[in-house]
Amino acid sequence: MSIYYTKTFQRAFGTFPLKGDELLASIEAAAKTGFRAFDTAQMYENEATTGEGLANTGIPRDELCITTKVNIENFSSEAFPPSVEKSLKDLRIDYVDVLLLHWPPADGHIAPSLRMLEDALKRGLTRNIGISNYTVAMMREAVEIVDAPLVTNQVEFHPLLNQDRLMAGANEVGIPLSAYCSVARGEVFKEPTFAEIGDTYGKSAGQVVLRWILQKGVSVNVMSTNPANIQSNFDIMDFTLSNVDMARIDALTHRNYRIVGRDLVPFAPDFD
Q1: Which of 47, 53, 56, 258 is the most exposed place for a label (fewest CB within 10 A)?
Q2: Are β-strands 65-70 and 129-132 bridged in parallel, bridged antiparallel, or unpaired?
Q3: CA Rg, the chain, in Å?
Q4: What is the pLDDT of residues 135-157, one digit of tens each?
Q5: What angle do CA 87, 153, 209 make, to 5 degrees?
Q6: 153 has which bridge partners?
Q7: Is residue 35 part of a domain?
Q8: Is the pTM of this model over 0.90?
Q9: What whole-number distance in Å separates Cα of residue 26 and Cα of residue 29?
Q10: Is 44 a catalytic residue?
Q11: Number of domains in the chain
Q12: Options 4, 5, 44, 134, the catalytic residue
């Protein structure tokens, strides 16, 4: 089972796009709430503040799951190793728990960056490796290239986007998915179904959305600067959506509301 889908780490606190004091305060609140998994990236330009915030919590290193991602601009053999070493220095740690490739290369040739990722694992810079924003075809190719398990493919995943094909491909090759944009950057709150379902469980619309993701077998990354919302995002393990309610939410995925596409990221692949 993926490190991302153990009970402790099913819920990760995402740090994008936070910086500075706002990020420090949010990490403090998340840690007090109970979050032990934290997600950052070179591209976010906040690794140093994330490292400061985590150090300030006083939580023992072995109780944390820290994920960062290598920027596509650092995929050359000259840039990749130093960039990871800088990430560790900024994060104030000797290794990350999970190191991801943030995007597939723009030219679609995934082998070189995957091999450098695996080399980082062999060097002890990370305990686990994974990918992000990979298509089904890329996942199939990736498992043939690297010998080590790929513990996750972090992708946009929420109930307004149909990811059935991607999930089927992930299950086929044995790469668990983890979600970013879990609440579709607030778009889900325009849909009354989530609040209606939440009323029957004594839960908020956002909690229903996050619980649906977990019950799909996908771990979640959530971000908030509001302590009450941080607490709410964490409190999603004490109820289970019925099959009927899961089906009601499944029906909303036909909208195919995608946030992160080529209009936002020009080098994004042709998503499934």
Answers
A1: 56
A2: unpaired
A3: 18
A4: 999 999 999 999 999 999 999 99
A5: 105
A6: 131, 177
A7: yes
A8: yes
A9: 5
A10: yes
A11: 1
A12: 44
